[in-house]
Specification:
ph1033 like fold, 24% strand, nucleus, phosphoprotein, THYN1-like_EVE, DNA-binding, six-stranded mixed beta sheet, alpha+beta
DNA sequence: GCCAACGTTGGC
DNA sequence: GCCAACGTTGGC
């Protein structure tokens, strides 16, 4: 059985050279079992902003620490890393829609204070996540074969910290307000698709969240 | 540590 | 292709 873990990033720097060409992941893919694969072509909106979750606090999975917070991304060469370890089809499919230059929130999950810590940029589009073939990796997937890889990743580069940390609790208050009275966060995936580790934001959602930087905490 | 929510698996 | 059982996510 494939590991069904939350999305997580390794401490690996992204520039390690050997990546199978970045385009294979985006093109045709075989149907893989029963998981629903949303497709861009089927009239779904094309998103251009994202939110990606990772855990900033130490947690051990099979004896391996999966901690990877925004400070860890910042510390990598070129402040760039590959977002490996995503083992959920919807999350993977969103990564496959990402384009170079697009912005994503770095979200801290499963920690003291969950919320948005900073902004990063997509610097390489989807390509094969090599950790799926690595028996020693937490995210090894015995069902995935190199001639038909299941999982993809993108490279992200640190851009900046948000001017202040934007806690989940605050975002949730806005979400509830907006759901009741209308507003940009009424359908935010963070709340409507709670467990999705890579998720899209509309421009309105993204801009509204960024505008909170300059506001007093709610 | 609890547990609700929800994605995935597998029997039928 | 349905759906109950199972396992994981992730806030609290």
């Amino acid at each position: 059985m494939p590991p069904k873990t939350r999305a997580r990033v390794s401490k690996r720097a992204a520039d390690s050279g050997k990546d199978d060409d970045g385009k294979t992941a985006v093109g045709k893919r075989k149907k893989t079992g029963k998981a629903k694969e949303s497709s861009v072509s089927a009239g779904s909106p094309e998103y251009c902003h994202w939110l990606m979750k990772s855990e900033p606090e130490s947690r051990f999975e099979n004896g391996i620490d999966v901690k990877f917070g925004i400070e860890d991304l910042k510390a990598l060469p070129n402040q760039t890393g590959c977002w490996d370890g995503v083992r959920n089809y919807q999350a993977r499919n969103f990564m496959r829609q990402m384009k170079v230059g697009q912005l994503a929130f770095f979200y801290h999950s499963n920690c003291k204070e969950p919320g948005i810590a900073g902004v990063m940029k997509i610097v390489k589009e989807a390509y094969v996540d090599h950790t799926q073939f690595d028996k020693k990796d937490v995210h090894f997937d015995a069902n995935s074969k190199p001639d038909n890889p299941k999982w993809s990743m993108v490279d992200v580069q640190y851009q900046r910290m948000t001017k202040r940390f934007l806690p989940l609790s605050e975002l949730k208050k806005y979400h509830l307000q907006h759901r009741a009275a209308g507003g940009p966060l009424k359908d935010m995936a963070l709340f409507t698709r709670a467990r999705l580790s890579v998720q899209p934001l509309t421009t309105e959602e993204f801009d509204f969240v960024l505008s909170l930087e300059d506001k007093e905490p709610l």
